[in-house]
Design the sequence.
């Protein structure tokens, strides 16, 4: 089988490529990535020379380019990770999110229709369900929870999901969708909570916690997300949505304190800053469907996953130092200048 993995130079996509090459060495893989600020070829260093792996630079929203790629490669499966993925950036610049996340998804599916495909998989997010109240720990997102988005990012992801389901119903395109909770692990871009806090703590810099820090996220080690997508594309049922999460809810403040403790740093570094506009309070996934239908269960407990993640950032300083010394610095200043 030949898979095109879009967004494979990003955080989850690169982890997924390592997972696939390890577990399916008989398959062929083409990584299609635009290499935006979030795409990093050094994340793929370990697979670049593999004979069954190829990297192609391009934009999923570029119709001519995508069609010529499909014509040439004749893929069996598309896994679409490519997206603008950061909520804060979507608040600063929403339009780019519409172009990549909505139009890009439509272009990929049109190419699937034109050239034929065994499976199109859309990597979506729990953010399409909006948020849950903090005082109702009994509530969880299921696959039938209504879509109710808060940010331009989540609205663009929900739009893409609706388009994917429409292509299934109208054109019979063999699609699946996964909606996962917050991932963490190696190659996570430093703008996101966990790597940002690890790197700032290592530099004894302020740790900017939005609002009161009680917002809850449901953290999943990235390899567990990869194993879920692997099962869905190979054994999941066409037209179905699968929620992915491991019942691991933590407040932002708790996550930050765990990181500080592991690094032996003082909690005095915690700095409460102006809240994110429209900030979702709590995410919590009910993964019963994927467990019952496909037998998926997460393998990594948070206590072990966060230790492995911190160790990875300590062992791979070159990877993130190159990022934080470049363009990213300008984003950081713009984002946090008037907040800290
Ligand atoms: P990321 O920002 O780290 O990576 C995105 C990748 O997509 C980058 O390599 C970037 O260069 C590429 N890309 C962006 N625009 C492109 C375009 N127009 N054409 C081709 N490539 C393009 O994102 P991530 O955190 O790895 O997330 C991957 C996917 O998983 C996204 O669709 C996101 O919505 C979803 N998701 C993420 C999480 C999470 O916690 N990070 C959780 C659930 C779902
Ligand atoms: O739930 C899945 C989603 O998780 C994915 O769809 C998104 O692509 C991914 O970016 C992530 O979104 P979040 O907004 O939850 O992740 P982020 O790391 O940006 O923030 C996590 C929480 O931490 C959130 O409540 C905001 C807070 N935060 C974040 C940053 C960057 C802070 O308090 N301070 C910060 O500096």
Sequence:
């Amino acid at each position: 089988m030949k898979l095109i993995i879009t967004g494979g130079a990003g955080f989850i996509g690169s982890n997924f490529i390592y997972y696939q090459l390890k577990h399916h060495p008989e398959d062929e893989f083409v990584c299609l990535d635009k290499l935006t600020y979030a795409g990093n070829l050094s994340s793929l260093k370990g697979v670049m020379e593999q004979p069954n792996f190829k990297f192609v630079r391009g934009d999923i929203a570029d119709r001519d380019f995508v069609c010529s790629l499909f014509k040439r490669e004749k893929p069996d499966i598309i896994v679409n990770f490519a997206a603008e993925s950061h909520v804060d950036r979507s608040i600063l610049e929403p339009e780019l999110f519409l172009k990549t996340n909505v139009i890009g998804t439509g272009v990929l599916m049109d190419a699937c229709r034109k050239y034929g495909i065994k499976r199109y998989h859309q990597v979506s997010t729990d953010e399409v369900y909006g948020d849950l109240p903090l005082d109702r720990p009994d509530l969880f997102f299921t696959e039938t929870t209504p879509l109710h988005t808060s940010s331009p990012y989540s609205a663009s992801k929900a739009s893409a999901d609706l388009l994917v389901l429409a292509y299934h119903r109208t054109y019979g395109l063999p699609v699946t969708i996964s909606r996962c909770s917050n991932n963490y692990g190696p190659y996570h871009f430093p703008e996101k909570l966990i790597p940002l806090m690890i790197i700032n703590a290592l530099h004894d810099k302020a740790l900017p916690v939005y609002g009161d820090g009680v917002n809850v996220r449901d953290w999943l080690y990235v390899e567990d997300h990869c194993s879920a997508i692997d099962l869905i594309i190979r054994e999941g049922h066409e037209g179905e949505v699968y929620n992915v999460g491991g019942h691991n809810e933590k407040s932002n403040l708790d996550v930050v304190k765990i990181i500080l403790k592991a690094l032996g740093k003082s909690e005095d570094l915690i700095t409460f800053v102006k809240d994110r506009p429209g900030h979702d309070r709590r995410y919590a996934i009910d993964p019963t469907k994927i467990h019952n239908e496909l037998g998926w269960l997460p393998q990594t407990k948070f206590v072990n996953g966060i230790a492995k993640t911190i160790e990875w950032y300590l062992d791979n300083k070159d990877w993130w130092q190159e990022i934080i010394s470049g363009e990213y610095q300008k984003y950081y200043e713009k984002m946090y200048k008037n907040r800290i």
